[in-house]
Structure formats: C-alpha cells, structure tokens
C-alpha cells in the first residue's frame, strides 16, 4: 500500500467515513503485520538493546495525558498506533539491518492461511484475492510500475482493469506465470501440480523451458494444468463453478474420483491420507459438501464414496464400506 493511500484510509477512518471495501483494505494492511517475520531475530544482543532504548525514549517523548475517545475513533487509533510503532522500528531497522537481508524484504506484504482457512485480500489497485487453505501470497506494496504477486497454494483472483491497461501477473514459479488485464480466475500451485481455470475475461499463461518460452491464451471455461514441466500442459474445457466453489465454503463434485478428493484433503486441509486398497481411489462421486466443518466434510465423502473414514489427529484412514 502506498503512503498516500494509507494516509487517505486513515483520514477516512478518523472521520468515520470508511466504506465496507475500504475497511477490508485497511484491515488487510493491519493484518499483514501478524504474518510479518520478526526482523530483530537477525540483530546482535548489543544492537537489539540499542534499538529498544531508542524506541522507549521515542515512546516516552510522545506520551500525552490519557483521553476518553469516541467509539468510532478507537479503531482509527489502533491503526495509528501500529503506524507509530512501524515508524519507530523503521529507524532502528535501517540503522541495524544485517547486510545479508535485502532491503526489499522489509517492505514485502505477506498473507498466509492455515489448513482449512480462507482469507480475502484487497490489493493496492483494489483487485480482490481470496486465498484458499494452506496458501501464501506476497507482493511489493508499491504498484506504480507493475502489478505482480507471487502465489504458493490456491487463490481466486478478481482483477480490475486499470485506465492505463496495466498488466497484472501471478507468478507461481520461475518457469510459469499468468498475465491478465482484468478478469476472474483461479490459480492453484500444489504438490500435485499447477492449474489455472478462467471464469471471465482472457488470460495468457507464460510457460518457460530452458531457453524456450511458450504462451497459451485462455478463454472463459478453459483449464490449463501440468505436473512439473510447464511445456507438457493440458488445455481443456471445464465448468469453472466446480473449481471456484471453495470460495463460497463448499466443494462441488461432478464425477470426481476419490483420488482427486484425497489430494484436496492433503493440500488444503493438511491431512495425511492412508488407503487400505488403492482401487478405492477410482471411485467417483457427484454432489456437494461444506468446507467450513471438517467433520461434515468427511461424513459427506464417506457416505458418497461408500468408504469408512477413521481420523487420528492429522491422519485419515480409508477402507471399504461395502
């Protein structure tokens, strides 16, 4: 987020004029500090003590008499307090930052989700991202020159079209990225492979192999996927709603194999799945199950696939129910 944008949002919050979208954007910025690494871990004991001393001196110099705040202003002061600490930390960080840590890392925005969680993020250009479980999104806060994010896991993107037709890029690896102008799509980068499903608009997938670069232009309803080698991709037509359903807290199966379902349980929910008979993986089901309740999710899979499911901590054991 740029300094001007943050100043505008804080002014809106202080005046009680934040819209729902602006509130989500500010909450996303505020929440980014929870996921940020502790930069003081790389400091020596002496440098850490000096930094703490500078911070305490600065804080004591800013303390005023306590005031009773109107309720609508308290949330604004929460953001302002974070900014004050960030400013104080910044002075010490650039003074004591180890030479081995790039300066860009200090300004990188990082969002993560745990197993089974989802998170909505509003980007600096007001594009929207919904992270699926066990996922990570990073980007630089300054988007004046380019709009670019790095994804590990799975996410839905609703990209706005800028007045200057600025390209938006999603990078999942050194040899693969998705370029768009304004559209809606899902990108998945898991252990089982990489997948892009286009819901609206048009995207271009860049696939690199050594010195050669190829590209695939996708239309609504297209799916592009590959295992490890992007040049060996598959392009086919699908129903995008099947791949977007998770963002609405449900999974939709349409002749889906149990093998594909176990991959979701491992990638998104963090389970380790063990199966008595490998032939069970060929069973196919159709229907829908909720994603917000793991017990209901497993019960639905058990009933639809006619398998017994035994759960022990993060391990799931499947056996024939017939």
UniProtKB/TrEMBL annotation:
Gene Ontology MF term list: sigma factor antagonist activity
Keyword Cell inner membrane attributed: no
InterPro entries listed in its UniProt record: FecR, FecR_C, Ferrdict_sens_TM
Ranges of residues in domain Protein FecR C-terminal: 250-317
Key words, A-Z: Membrane, Transmembrane, Transmembrane helix
Organism superkingdom: Bacteria
Start and end residues of each FecR protein domain: 110-204
Chain ranges passing through the membrane: 76-96
This protein's name: FecR family protein
């Amino acid at each position: 987020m740029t300094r001007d944008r943050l100043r505008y949002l804080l002014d809106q919050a202080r005046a009680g004029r934040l819209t729902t979208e602006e509130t989500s954007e500010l909450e996303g910025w505020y929440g980014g500090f929870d996921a940020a690494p502790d930069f003081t871990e790389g400091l020596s004991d002496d440098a850490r003590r000096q930094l703490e001393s500078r911070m305490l001196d600065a804080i004591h110099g800013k303390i005023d008499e306590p005031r009773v705040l109107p309720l609508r202003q308290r949330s604004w002061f929460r953001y302002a307090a974070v900014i004050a600490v960030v400013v104080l930390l910044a002075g010490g960080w650039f003074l004591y930052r180890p030479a081995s840590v790039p300066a860009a890392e200090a300004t990188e925005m990082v969002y993560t989700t745990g197993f089974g969680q989802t998170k909505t993020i509003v980007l600096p250009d007001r594009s929207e991202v919904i992270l699926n479980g066990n996922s990570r999104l990073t980007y630089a806060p300054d988007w004046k020159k380019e709009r670019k994010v790095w994804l590990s896991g799975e996410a839905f993107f609703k990209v706005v079209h800028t007045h200057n037709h600025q390209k938006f890029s999603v990078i999942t690896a050194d040899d693969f990225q998705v370029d768009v102008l304004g559209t809606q799509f899902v990108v998945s980068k898991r252990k089982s492979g990489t997948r892009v499903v286009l819901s609206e608009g048009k995207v271009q997938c860049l696939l690199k192999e050594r010195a050669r670069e190829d590209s695939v232009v996708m239309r609504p309803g297209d799916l592009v996927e590959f295992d490890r080698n992007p040049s060996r991709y598959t392009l086919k037509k699908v129903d995008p709603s099947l791949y977007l359903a998770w963002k609405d807290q449900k999974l939709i199966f349409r002749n889906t194999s149990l093998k594909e379902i176990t991959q979701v349980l491992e990638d998104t929910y963090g389970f380790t799945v063990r199966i008595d008979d490998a032939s069970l993986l060929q069973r196919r089901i159709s229907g829908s199950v909720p994603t917000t309740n793991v017990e209901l999710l497993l019960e639905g899979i058990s009933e639809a696939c006619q398998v017994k499911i035994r759960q022990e901590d993060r391990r799931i054991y499947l056996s024939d129910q017939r």
